[in-house]
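Hey, I'm writing a tutorial for new members on how sequence and structure tokens pair up, and I'd like a real worked example in the thread rather than a made-up one. If someone can provide the structure for the chain below, I'll link this post from the tutorial.
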Amino acid sequence: MSRTDSEHPWVDEIKRTTGPQTSNGRRWEVQLSAAPSSDWLNLFRGSGEASARAVPQRVDFDRASAYFKSDEDQVEHWVASIDKWIASTNARSWPMSWSRCCRRMSSPSQK
């Protein structure tokens, strides 16, 4: 079960759990360890670590799946790029999530 931002103020580390799969040879899917939060997705899309062939803004997410369009000969490059973007996003999201957690824990409850 994945956590949402409202349930927990931290973000679980996201990992790719499967290799690429396709049903049509053009649109590819990889499974993730959890559904990313909206904050995590914003960081992922803003990675800025794109190549001429793979761009983080062209990865679509649906729950715990990531989708991208690619010719078969470029899939390996896409998967390597997605892994790099996931690692970078995880590294950047943890400090933000921890900071938000600390702020919530130190602020007085509102009734």
